[in-house]
Amino acid sequence: MTYTYDQYQQSADYIREKLGSFSPKVAMILGSGLGFLGDVVESPIAIPYGEIPHFKASTAPGHKGRLVFGTLSGQPVAVMQGRMHHYEGYSYEDVSYAVRVLRLLGCDTLIVTNAAGCVRTDWQAGDLMLITDQIKLFSESPLRGENLPQFGTRFPDASHLYTPRLQALARQVAAAQGVTLREGVYFYCYGPQYETPAEVRAARILGGDAVGMSTAPEVIVASHCGMEVLGFTLLSNMAAGILDQPLSEQEVLDAAAAAKDKFSTLVLGCLEQL
Asked: What domains, with CATH codes, occur in the chain?
């Protein structure tokens, strides 16, 4: 489906009616097992995705499927507790639809998180990674189709999808907190099956440090419509073929729970400094 600018506006207008005078500035997309930050938003206004015109439902386990508006670390935020994925049957335009709506609502910064497999053999599961770039080679762009100039240009530059200024901020916050923060490239795969050992080896050769099934489409759209982007990956497991054991969804959720305090402290520290 190709959405029109009017449809994005309809979604934004519906949300504005719920928000009253509140205007968010920072959008947050929280991934597998990491949606707990939406539960600590002050003066929350929660809107299920299913109530918003043209929104799709999030079906992935661990994703609540709602927008939470309010204040977090002193910042007016819009928290997506759960995201849509291409593997759920949605187009890339569906997957990234909410980003444009949040831009219309006033968000000029996107903080995006995910849980992903660790490709690097010298890192370990449980580490946090600052995303410095991404690879999304083998599928269509979420910008495919008619361009909507109200959001951005037809052929946008992708040299700095992840904003260097915000990366520098994250490094400073991590250092002050004594948190070891890896830095690397997020390699996007469709899912829902986990990657094969051969695919993980290919990702490593091509420059990927973590491999996962989300994030890349939303970041492309956020950059297209002029948002600054800060991204973090929880390396929830070693990618296929590194250890002689099968991968499981429960492993991802368990790793997210174990990293909850470290992860939230880092993200909230960055948010406070924006």
From this structure: 5-273 (3.40.50.1580)
